[in-house]
Each structure stands twice: as C-alpha cells, then as structure tokens.
Amino acid sequence: MNLLENLGIKVVEQSKKRVILEMAIEDKHLQPYKIMHGGLNAVLAETAGSIGANLNIQDAGFAAVGVDIMTHQLNKIKDGIVIAEATPVRIGRNIQTWQAFTHPKGSAINASLSTMTLKKVKVD
C-alpha cells in the first residue's frame, strides 16, 4: 500500500499549473490531543507540489523529488475534509518551487513552500 492510499489522500485535480488533493480526517490522522497531526500538512503540500512538478518535466528518465519544505501551522482542525491546493512559484529546468495551502472549506490551516529537483530515475 502506498502513502496516499494509506492516508486516504485523493487527487481531485492535477495540471501543470494547479494540483488539488483531498483527505477526510480519520482517527489515524489525529494527535493524542484529538487534532490533525501537523506533519500531514507537510505530506499534503509536498505531494501536491511533486505531482505538479512531475507534470512539468520535459526530460524522459527524470523525476521531481522534494529537497526542501517550509511549513507554517496556522490553525488546528479536528474533523472534516481538508483540501490542499498547490500552485507553482517557479518552474525551472532543474528546480521547481510550489506553494500550497491546506484548508477545510473556508480558512487556511497551513501554508507551505516546497522545492523539488530533478533526479535521474531508472524506468523498468
């Protein structure tokens, strides 16, 4: 089982300019204090940015992988559905930076900036 399946993350929209993910909060996503674990915001942000970055790759045999993420927890959430929306800040030939906001419908609970670089990958 991969990470997205395990956490219940669904890809709602994906393009070279915007990626939207959705996750219904379950008990497995909560800290002992019954609020969503902040690390999930980083997972959502990097996943969304990586999906978008990989859609922008022009060289076969390469994949965009995360090298840095900065995330700011702005608010807490206990239940419902969270949405992560990512858009590119810069799409370069070797490095891409994407910003992501995680929120329930309404206000942001997290703002993140992630950077991906190209790595040569073996295609089977």
Automatic annotation (TrEMBL):
<dbReference type="InterPro" id="IPR006683">
    <property type="entry name" value="Thioestr_dom"/>
</dbReference>
<comment type="similarity">
    <text>Belongs to the thioesterase PaaI family.</text>
</comment>
<feature type="domain" description="Thioesterase">
    <location>
        <begin position="34"/>
        <end position="100"/>
    </location>
</feature>
<keyword id="KW-0378">Hydrolase</keyword>
<protein>
    <submittedName>
        <fullName>PaaI family thioesterase</fullName>
        <ecNumber>3.1.2.-</ecNumber>
    </submittedName>
</protein>
<dbReference type="InterPro" id="IPR003736">
    <property type="entry name" value="PAAI_dom"/>
</dbReference>
<dbReference type="InterPro" id="IPR029069">
    <property type="entry name" value="HotDog_dom_sf"/>
</dbReference>
<dbReference type="GO" id="GO:0016787">
    <property type="term" value="F:hydrolase activity"/>
</dbReference>
<dbReference type="Pfam" id="PF03061">
    <property type="entry name" value="4HBT"/>
</dbReference>
